[in-house]
Every structure is written in structure tokens, then in C-alpha cells.
């Protein structure tokens, strides 16, 4: 698979294996997260994403294989440079917001004065300054999520791992978090996004790795992957009666709409160029739109799984829906 | 990462000490203790005022006079006159404890028809005391009839002071005071027992809270499970020590203020009785008693008694430094051993209600050592039960501190502490393994089989 060549990776996993009593959680997974980028770790529930994250965050260790952080073997001295937002959110309920943030930051190696200054800044940015002296249990769920997000990034980690970061946020706050994530990237951090809802992060990710059934199925920069998987299919919308009988192209899908309108997907045979199709169409109908169909990551994933492990397709497809 | 361990311990300490429940409990308990002190004091003084038993003697044998002589501080006999029905009415009217009736024509050899009237049910203790005095009076009467003079009788009457002496291994004699020894042993055992229970359960709850609030995963990405567990155990130990220390100080202070205030009637009464002894049956004894009880109520004097007890303990055969050192060792060792286990239980279960099945095997040896300690070990501190229970790490913290004041051979103490340290290291190891796996395990009904598997999971 083509690796990102933008910059050297901040994190690299090499042939990582993890076995639990009954099942294999990770079966030789290798991937590289480029510096200052957003990396999507995608896959259905139970694919092994959380196992991999727990190894990167040093909650558990890999059975074999190695993890390199900035070229060094991962060790406890890296804890302060990694931030982690787990899917299962949780804070000490009976602790005040401010104290809790200080405590978590101190555990990540931040000094108390530094922590205080940064907390002030973040609470202002999220407009929850009035809540600093409140117990966490008195906060609404959305606000607790904001506090937890602050706790994740307060020590200004160079690698931020966000497991399902948008779950539990309303659309307005989700946008707020999205902007913050982009800003963090701008400031130099690398972000790992873990999600099973692939469409939600596709637009934000620079590169991705797809994991299914403990194995990496696909990885690389998003644009490269999508280009790699496009199959010369064009979407056409227009008016008129479309009738394609041509040796160079083939209709994959065609739908008639009211007022003599239509929608069609047409695949070009090898050697045929899009302009040939366009010319053919112009002679026949009124063309309103004409664009290449680039498959979504979701589609690529399903296709990829079908290619590699046909027997698991249904199961996986169900998990995705 | 020692600093993280300290941060965790610090958080555990501060969040608990600042809780309202902690403050309330810390302030309230000393007053409850002081209240108990007042209650016990009141009961003690009321018990100490002599019970008066009227004696209507129509036998003409002079029993009433002899009984008066046999009066003790607790029990005084008062000869009365008049008919039996009158006497019956009078003793109740005077609020006396009872009426002893000796009928006319009583046969010394075969005294039948002696009656004791009491108000309501007569307690066994009261009856025994009256019976004893009566027997003694008849014995004296018989002795006199058999030819002894009153002087000879007075000489025969003897109160033998009994002082116990204990021999140490070198054969050196020392005063022994089984009361003080037993007292020290009981207090130490109770302290350890309650400390482990009260704060061990807090460890379990704390872990349970971290688990149910799902904060665990965030914590684990920063702190090693072992540091998290030990930080919690040590932090809560500090909470416990703070609370015990405050209880000790406040109880002392509260009894210094509250007791004299509430008990001032008793103290004043005792003082006037000392100052102006009236013409009661045996005024000197009553006054002495009252003075003694007044003195006991005086906190300043009581403090002296405590420091005096330490001085005395030196004179007695009580190994003070062994006790101090041993208590600290077993206090810490026992708490850490059980604390780790409580932590593991908290980690193993999802739901607080599920803790019962795992609590039982943990608390069993602790309760056993407490119960057996007070029933068997205290009576026979050198017996085989005492020996074995003071060797097993799960029971030794309570069992051994009970034995300490009675003197324990050095090799036994050494072996027991070594075993305790090994036991402590072992349980912490086991507990940290269970903890490490359990804290991230949700929605699984845990069995013992499952737990034993966790111990061998790889990191």
C-alpha cells in the first residue's frame, strides 16, 4: 500500500498482535500516522480499533510487534505527549471542573501554574468559565463532554486520539469541536480519529486505515485511495430520452424522472475518455450535469472486504449499517 | 512514577477530607463517645451508691447486729422495728432495696423461714450478696456458740489482699495486672479491626465509583494501574489516620468539657459527702467511694491516670516498645493486605450489590480473628490457636496485637511479621492483577474461575 509521503510519521505500528483469551484482537496490524495530519482509524464495531488505541495509550501492551513514537519505541515518557478521549466518557463526578482538569493535566506532566493558565483559556473559549467551580455531576452531558475534550488536549499533546469524538454532541457543539480539531492540527498536532461511522470523518481525514476483523484492510491518503478505487464511472443528469447502445460505454444505472428528466451512471470501457461519452450524450440529450463518480470510503471499504474476505461481507455490511 | 502515585494519593485524601460527611462524622463521633462516657459515669455512680436492705429481726439471735457489721460499700443492712406488714410498707416508702425478715424462734442449726422481700423481681446478684452476708452471720453465730470469743472472731475475720506476680522468661518477677494487659490488648485489636473495615470498604467503593463513572480509561492512559491502586490505598489510609487522630483529640477535648458540665451534680454531691460525712451506716466508706468516683470524673486527673498507666506499664511486665512497634507494623501491614483485596473486589464487579459474594471470603478471616481473638486468644495468649492465628497473615494483624501485651517470644514476632510482609506482597500482587484486568471489564458477571484467569493475563 502506498504510505503517506507528506512527512515522517509521528506514530508507527509494526506488525502489532494482541490476543485475548478467546479471540485475536489485532492480527499483525501495521500503520503509520503522519505528523500534523488527521488520521482516520476506521472499521466496524469490534474490529480491533479500541485494542489498538489501548496499546498506543499504553493501557495495555502488545503481545508482539512494536509501536514507535517519533521513531522511539513507545514508553511511559511519551504519556505526556499523547492525549486520549475514550469512547466511554467519564470524569470524577464529585470533583469540581477546575480541580479535575488540573489533576488530569498534572498526571500528564503539566505543572500546576501552567495548567491553571491553560484551563482559563480553554474555559473561555468554550464559554463555560462560570462552571469551573461546579461539580461535574451538576453539568449537562454536553458540557461534561466539553470538559473532557479540554482534559484531552490541555497538556498540548502532539498526538491526540479521539474515539468517536462527535457522539453525544448536538450539531452546534459538534461543529465547535470540529473547528477545534482543525485548529489543533493547524497548530501542529497529529490527530487519530477512531470511528465506525466512516462518513462522519471522511471529509476531515488526510489519511485513513481501515480495520476489519483484527486486520488492516487498507490504508493511505484519502484522495489517493479514492482515486485508486474509482472505476471510470460518470454520473449524468439531464433532459431527454437517453438510450445508450454503444461498444465503448455501458449504463450501470438509469432512472427516469418527471418532466422527461433522467439520472444515469455510465461506466467507460478501457481506453475510452470522458469526452467521448460527453460528445455522445450531447448529440442525444440536454446535459445538466456530468461528473466522475468517486467512491466514498464506505463503498470502498465494502468493496475491499468483498474482495479480500467474501464470507465476511454480510456480517460486516450489517455492522456498517 | 512516584510523583503520579503521590498525585493520586493526594487527590484521594483531599476529596475525602473535604466531603461534608467526613467533617460531620469527625465532629459528631467524639460527642457520641463523650456521651457514652457520661452515660457510663452516671450508671457507675448510681451503682456505687449503697443499696440498703432493711432487716426485721424477731429471732432474738442478734443476727441484725451482725449483718450491720457485715455491711459492704455496696450493700448496707439497716435494722428496723415494727410489725412485718409495717416493715414491708416502710422499705418501699424509703426506696430501700429490700427487706430481710427473720421470724421468731429461728433455729440456729436449721434456720428455716427466713424471707427476703424485694420490689418487683429480685436480681440474682442482689440475692447472692444478701445470702452471702446471711451465711456469714450464721457462721459467726455458730462459731461463737461453740466457744469462740468476740475478740477471737474479729481476729478470724480477714480480708486478704491478692497481688498477682508474673515471671518473665529470665525468671525475673514483675507485678502483673491482667486488667491493664487485657485492656491494652482489646483496644489495639479493636482499633486495627475497625480501621481495616471502615477504610477497606472505602477503597472498594472508590474503585467502584471510578469504574462506574468510566473515568478509569482516562486515568489508565496516564497512570499505571498499580500506582492508581496503591495511591488510592495510601490516600485513604491517610484519611483514616487523620480521622482517628481527630477523634482521639476531640474525644479527649469533648470529655474534658462536656463531662464536668453534665456530671456537675454528681461531682458536687460527692464533694459535699466528703466534706460533711453524715451519720449513715458506714459514712466513711460511702464518702470514699464518692470521692473516688468524683476523681474519676476529673479529666485532668484522668489524663494523669493515662500517663501514669504508661509509667506503671513500665513497672508491670508489659513490653511497651514491642507493643508500639508491633502495633504500627500490624496496623499498616494488615491494612495494606486487606486494602489491596478490597480494591480488587471493587475492580472485579460492576455493581456494588455484586460485591457481597467476594466480600465474604475477605471479611471472614478478619471477623474470625476478631471473634476468636476475644474469646480464645485473650484467655490463652500462648495457646496453639493463638500461635497459629498470629502466624497466618490474614488473621495475624488482630491476633498478634492481642498477644503483644502478654509478651510474645521474639522469634514468633519476627516470623509473624515476615509472613505478614510476604502475605502483603502476595495479596498486592494478586490484587493488582485482578485490578488491572477488572477495571476495564464491563457488563460481565465475574466468577472465581474468571478471576483466577485474570491473574495470568499478560500486560
How does the SSE layout of this entry go?
The complex is a heterodimer of chains A (321) and B (459).
Chain A: E1 9-19, E2 24-34, E3 38-42, H1 49-56, E4 64-69, E5 72-73, E6 82-85, H2 97-107, H3 112-125, H4 141-153, E7 159-163, H5 171-186, E8 190-195, H6 198-202, E9 207-212, E10 215-221, H7 222-229, E11 233-239, E12 249-257, E13 261-268, H8 274-282, E14 286-292, H9 297-308, H10 313-320
Parallel strand pairs in A: 3-8, 3-9, 6-7, 7-8
Antiparallel strand pairs in A: 1-2, 1-4, 4-5, 9-10, 11-13, 11-14, 12-13
Helix pairs in contact in A: 2-3, 2-4, 9-10
Chain B: H1 2-17, H2 20-48, E1 51-57, H3 63-69, E2 75-79, H4 84-93, E3 98-102, E4 115-118, H5 124-145, H6 150-156, E5 165-167, E6 173-175, H7 178-212, H8 216-220, H9 225-262, H10 264-275, H11 283-297, H12 299-315, H13 320-348, H14 355-377, H15 384-389, H16 396-403, H17 410-438, H18 448-454
Parallel strand pairs in B: 1-2, 1-3
Antiparallel strand pairs in B: 3-4, 5-6
Helix pairs in contact in B: 1-9, 2-9, 2-11, 7-9, 7-13, 7-14, 7-16, 9-13, 10-11, 13-14, 13-16, 13-17, 14-16
* Termini gap of chain B: 18 Å
What is the CATH first-level class name of the largest domain in chain A? Alpha Beta
CATH architecture of the largest domain in chain A: 3-Layer(aba) Sandwich
Q: Low-confidence stretches of chain A at least 5 residues in length (pLDDT < 50)?
A: 1-6
- Specify which chain pair forms the largest interface: A-B, 28 and 26 residues
Strand order of the largest sheet of chain A: 6-7-8-3-9-10
How can the largest sheet of chain A be summarized?
6 strands, mixed
Through-space gap between termini of chain A: 27 Å
The CATH homologous superfamily of the largest domain in chain A: P-loop containing nucleotide triphosphate hydrolases
Number of beta-strand segments of chain B: 6
String of helices and strands of chain A: EEEHEEEHHHEHEHEEHEEEHEHH
Average predicted local confidence, pLDDT of chain A: 86
Q: How many discrete domains of chain B?
A: 2
Shape of chain B: elongated
Helical residue percent of chain A? 25-40%
Oligomer: heterodimer
Helix segment count of chain A?
10
Q: Beta fraction of the residues of chain B?
A: 5-15%
Amino acid at each position: 500500500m502506498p504510505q503517506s509521503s507528506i512527512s515522517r510519521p509521528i506514530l508507527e505500528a509494526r506488525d502489532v498482535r494482541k490476543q485475548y483469551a478467546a479471540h485475536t484482537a489485532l492480527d499483525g496490524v501495521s500503520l503509520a500516522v503522519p505528523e500534523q495530519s488527521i488520521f482516520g482509524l476506521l472499521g466496524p464495531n469490534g474490529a480491533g480499533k479500541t485494542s489498538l488505541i489501548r496499546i498506543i495509550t499504553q493501557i495495555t501492551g502488545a503481545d508482539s510487534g512494536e509501536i514507535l513514537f517519533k521513531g522511539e519505541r513507545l514508553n511511559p515518557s511519551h504519556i505526556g505527549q499523547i492525549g486520549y478521549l475514550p469512547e466511554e466518557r467519564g470524569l470524577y463526578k464529585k470533583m469540581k471542573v477546575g480541580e479535575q482538569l488540573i489533576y488530569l493535566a498534572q498526571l500528564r506532566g503539566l505543572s500546576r501554574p501552567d495548567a491553571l493558565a491553560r484551563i482559563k483559556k480553554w474555559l473561555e473559549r468554550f464559554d463555560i468559565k462560570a462552571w469551573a467551580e461546579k461539580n461535574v455531576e451538576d453539568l449537562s452531558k454536553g458540557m461534561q463532554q466539553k470538559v473532557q475534550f479540554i482534559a484531552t488536549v490541555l497538556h498540548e499533546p502532539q498526538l491526540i486520539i479521539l474515539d468517536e469524538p462527535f457522539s453525544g454532541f448536538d450539531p452546534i457543539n459538534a461543529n465547535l469541536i470540529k473547528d477545534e480539531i482543525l485548529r489543533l492540527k493547524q497548530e501542529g498536532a497529529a490527530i487519530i480519529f477512531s470511528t465506525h461511522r466512516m462518513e462522519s470523518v471522511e471529509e476531515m481525514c488526510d489519511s485513513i486505515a481501515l480495520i476489519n476483523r483484527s486486520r488492516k484492510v487498507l490504508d493511505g491518503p484519502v484522495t489517493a485511495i479514492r482515486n485508486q478505487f474509482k472505476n471510470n464511472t460518470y454520473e449524468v443528469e439531464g433532459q431527454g430520452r437517453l438510450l445508450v447502445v454503444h461498444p465503448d460505454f455501458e449504463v450501470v444505472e438509469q432512472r427516469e424522472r418527471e418532466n422527461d428528466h433522467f439520472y444515469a451512471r455510465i461506466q467507460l470501457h478501457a481506453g475510452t475518455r470522458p469526452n467521448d461519452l460527453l460528445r455522445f450524450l450531447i448529440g442525444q440529450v440536454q446535459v445538466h450535469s456530468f461528473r466522475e463518480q468517486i467512491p466514498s470510503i464506505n463503498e470502498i471499504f465494502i468493496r475491499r472486504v468483498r474482495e479480500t474476505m467474501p464470507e465476511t461481507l454480510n456480517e460486516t455490511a450489517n455492522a456498517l449499517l | 512514577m512516584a510523583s503520579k502515585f503521590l498525585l493520586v494519593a493526594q487527590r484521594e485524601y483531599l476529596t475525602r477530607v473535604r466531603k461534608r460527611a467526613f467533617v460531620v462524622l469527625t465532629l459528631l463521633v467524639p460527642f457520641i463517645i463523650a456521651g457514652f462516657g457520661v452515660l457510663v459515669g452516671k450508671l457507675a455512680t448510681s451503682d456505687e451508691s449503697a443499696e440498703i436492705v432493711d432487716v426485721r429481726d424477731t429471732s432474738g439471735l442478734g443476727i441484725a447486729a451482725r449483718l450491720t457489721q457485715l455491711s459492704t460499700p455496696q450493700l448496707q443492712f439497716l435494722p428496723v422495728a415494727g410489725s412485718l406488714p409495717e416493715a414491708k410498707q416502710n422499705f418501699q416508702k424509703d426506696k430501700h432495696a429490700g427487706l430481710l425478715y427473720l421470724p421468731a424462734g429461728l433455729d440456729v442449726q436449721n434456720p428455716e423461714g427466713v424471707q427476703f422481700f424485694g420490689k418487683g423481681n429480685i436480681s440474682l446478684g442482689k440475692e447472692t450478696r444478701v445470702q452471702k452476708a446471711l451465711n456469714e452471720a450464721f457462721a459467726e453465730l455458730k462459731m461463737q456458740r461453740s466457744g469462740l470469743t468476740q475478740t477471737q472472731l474479729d481476729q478470724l475475720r480477714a480480708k486478704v489482699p491478692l497481688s498477682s506476680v508474673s515471671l518473665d522468661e529470665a525468671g525475673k518477677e514483675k507485678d502483673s495486672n491482667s486488667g491493664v494487659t487485657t485492656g491494652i490488648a482489646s483496644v489495639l485489636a479493636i482499633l486495627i479491626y475497625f480501621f481495616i473495615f471502615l477504610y477497606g470498604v472505602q477503597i472498594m467503593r472508590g474503585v467502584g465509583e471510578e469504574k462506574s463513572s468510566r473515568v478509569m480509561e482516562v486515568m489508565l492512559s496516564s497512570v499505571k494501574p498499580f500506582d492508581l491502586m496503591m495511591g488510592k490505598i495510601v490516600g485513604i489510609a491517610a484519611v483514616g489516620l487523620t480521622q482517628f487522630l481527630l477523634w482521639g483529640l476531640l474525644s479527649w477535648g469533648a470529655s474534658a468539657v462536656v463531662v464536668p458540665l453534665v456530671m456537675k451534680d454528681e461531682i458536687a454531691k460527692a464533694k459535699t459527702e466528703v466534706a460533711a460525712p453524715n451519720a449513715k451506716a458506714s459514712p466513711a466508706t460511702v464518702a470514699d467511694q464518692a470521692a473516688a468516683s468524683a476523681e474519676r470524673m476529673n479529666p485532668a486527673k484522668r489524663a494523669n491516670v493515662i500517663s501514669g498507666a504508661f509509667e506503671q506499664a513500665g513497672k508491670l511486665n508489659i513490653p511497651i516498645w514491642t507493643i508500639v512497634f508491633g502495633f504500627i507494623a500490624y496496623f499498616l501491614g494488615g491494612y495494606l493486605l486487606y486494602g489491596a483485596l478490597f480494591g480488587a473486589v471493587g475492580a472485579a464487579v460492576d455493581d456494588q450489590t455484586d460485591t457481597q459474594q467476594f466480600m465474604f471470603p475477605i471479611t471472614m478471616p478478619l471477623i474470625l480473628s476478631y471473634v476468636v481473638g476475644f474469646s480464645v486468644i485473650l484467655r490463652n495468649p500462648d495457646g496453639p490457636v493463638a500461635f497459629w492465628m498470629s502466624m497466618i497473615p490474614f488473621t495475624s494483624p488482630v491476633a498478634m496485637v492481642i498477644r503483644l501485651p502478654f509478651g510474645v517470644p521474639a522469634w514468633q514476632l519476627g516470623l509473624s511479621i515476615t509472613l505478614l510482609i510476604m502475605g502483603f506482597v502476595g495479596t498486592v500482587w494478586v490484587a493488582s492483577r485482578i485490578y488491572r484486568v477488572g477495571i476495564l471489564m464491563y457488563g460481565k458477571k465475574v466468577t472465581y474461575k474468571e478471576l483466577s484467569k485474570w491473574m495470568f493475563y499478560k500486560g
